[in-house]
Amino acid sequence: MGKYCDIVPHATGWVYVIDGVQSASYYHTYELAMEAAKAHVARDRSGRVEIFRRQALNGEMLPTPPMHGTPDQSAPRQSFPA
Questions:
Q1: Taking a C-beta distance cutoff of 8 angstroms, is the pair 15, 26 a contact?
Q2: DSSP class of residue 65?
Q3: Which of 23, 33, 34, 56 could, after both became Cys, cross-link 14 (CB 3.0–4.6 A)?
Q4: What is the pLDDT of residues 37-55, one digit of tens each?
């Protein structure tokens, strides 16, 4: 059974939770929380986190691949009519 890093909504933004311990800081976006969680896991180096998850609207925890790098700025963006 793998260890989990959960990215969950918080009243002030997003936090990550590893082994039931919530991050000391909160993050304004999901992406920032994921990056902070990745950095925490990289510093830990114990290899104990194997599965990243996010909380769905119904409360279910869904596996998600950890983000690598930054979003592709060359990807086309959809705009909505004004």
A1: yes
A2: P
A3: 33
A4: 888 888 876 666 678 898 8
